[in-house]
Design goal:
alpha+beta, Dna Ligase, domain 1, 2 domains, 13-stranded mixed β-sheet, four-stranded antiparallel β-sheet, globular, ATP-binding, glutathione biosynthesis, GSH-S_sub-bd_sf, GSH_synth_subst-bd
Amino acid sequence: MHTPFPSSLDGDAVQQLTEWAIMHGQAFRKTDGTARHAPFSLSPLPISQDELERLTRVIPLISRVIDRVSENHHFLQDALGPAASADPFFGRLLEMHQQLHANPGEVRRIPLLVMRTDFMQDQVFGPKVIEFNGIAAGMAPFGQRVAELHRFVQQQWPGLVPDLNKHQLVENRGMHLLARAMANAAIEVNRIHGGEGKPTFLMVVQGNEDNVYDQHLLAQEIQSCGVRTIRRTFDQLADQLYTGDNHRLMLEGEGAIDLVYLRAGYQYSDYFSLSRRDAICCHTLCQTRLFIEKHAVAVNATIGQQLATSKAMQLILTNMSPEEYASFGLTVEEANQIKSVLAEMRQVSPASIKHFIENEDINNWVLKNQGEGGGHCIFGSDIIGKLHTLPQADHAAWAVMQKLTPETRRALVIRDAKAHLVDELVSEIGLFSVMFNGNPATDLDGYAGYLIRSKPAHEGEGGVHSGQGVLDSLQLLD
């Protein structure tokens, strides 16, 4: 429960902190055009140096596997067919992927894998992967900003918030590292095409969304690297894209595009347009995404990358033997490093449902479908009800996953310009990584900063944007 924070953090200090957040873009747009600050913690998550190093070592291995899986057309089609038949949107993605690769010579995009791998630190089993995010894997700018905010508080008001002075804060350069990697990719594609004109970055966004400042922060950082940035929705692009010389992707009124970054496309509604009367739902805007991948342009996320970071693929990778990882270029030792951070997952089937109901404690599990973003997990007694009513045809779209139990901490959070004390706060650790055309795209072997999202332990939805989550940072245990 949130309770008023009865300390020296008075209204003036809270106001200055929220104004700092809005001034630095750590905010959401309101419907009236003004901004509200994104909620944040003032009690960073403690982590040991060993655990942090372990996670940053395993992230490049995970990125390498996902990158190679995403480029293996036949493996994706064979492995994900059952889930596609059980989930309409997932099925559409696999259908688009098949259509794209029906003529391999037409697949000209250069893959830029930008992903965020979300972990939770279990009290018994250590850090475990919650999910992979390979499309619209945003909020790296917010992650960097809240770490800067924590350092600002340390310097501006020493001793005001004891939790901020317990341990050394972990630097977070996520926005800078991602922007630099993306800018380098755009510059390289521009060079391949002869270096004419300024390298250009296209961000595909949702219409009228309020989570825009995180996107603009990234765009500004990319601009500082000498790359021009443009924003469009799929609906706009459907009438504006065309093909230039040497399979260049061209945008009407803007010229050649060197990099396409999707902050939309992870749900059916991103492809739906009231102004279009498609015989098949969302056909035109889905074809726009396919059109992009048939051009010589860097793309994140490719359809293959979105499939490779799905819950269905996470289930497959979790249950692979270390030896099977060799087909993706990993040694047994490297595979074991990955498997050590993968939480147990089980496919839903008539037999597994029977076993689960008769033999398992439902409180140790989470039921998940293929949806991206928040709101796709079922907990506790609701799991049994869902399994009883789930049609067998839909089983392949669902999986049960080990529920993680992290340490809780008493923490100070700022939400809606008010300070609260949360008695039991838990955190997710999101680590960013970037691969360009099969190679690590940062000086840190592809690692590109972190995002910490914390929430009250009793809350099921921990999104900062749509749930009860707050932005946070890391501090090193002594």
